[in-house]
Amino acid sequence: VYHCPHGWDDGCDCRKPKPGMLYQAQRDFHLNLSHTYFLGDDDRDGEAALAAGCPFEKVTETRPLSSIVIPLIKTIKK
Fold first, then answer.
1. Full residue range of the structural domain in which residue 48 is found
2. Model confidence over 10-55: pLDDT tens digits?
3. Distance between CA 62 and CA 38 in Å, rounded?
4. Which end of the chain has less neighbouring CB within 10 Å, N or C?
5. Domains contained in the chain, number
């Protein structure tokens, strides 16, 4: 889990919609961001995903996390 400890006006690269946290995860885990789904519940999450080149899925009250994750897990090749 990554989080931004900075305030809105601090000018950091990690507060969404900037993609800094995604780039940090890419470095830490050697991720291919074009194959790394980013799930979020806010438009800023989608903007960060777009900036980093990640597929984005929005979680909502009518589209809960499980309805997104279970189909994605089923696509993983063994």
1. 20-74
2. 999 999 999 999 999 999 999 999 999 999 999 999 999 999 999 9
3. 18
4. C
5. 1
> Any bridge partners for residue 58, and if so which?
40
Please report whether residue 67 resides in a domain.
yes
* Entry field: residues in the chain: 78
Contacts of 78 (CB under 8 A, 6+ apart): none
Helix (H, G, I), strand (E, B) or coil at 39: strand
* pTM of the shown model: 0.87
Is it the case that residue 77 has pLDDT exceeding 80? no
The answer to whether residue 3 is domain-embedded is no
Domain assignment present for 5: no
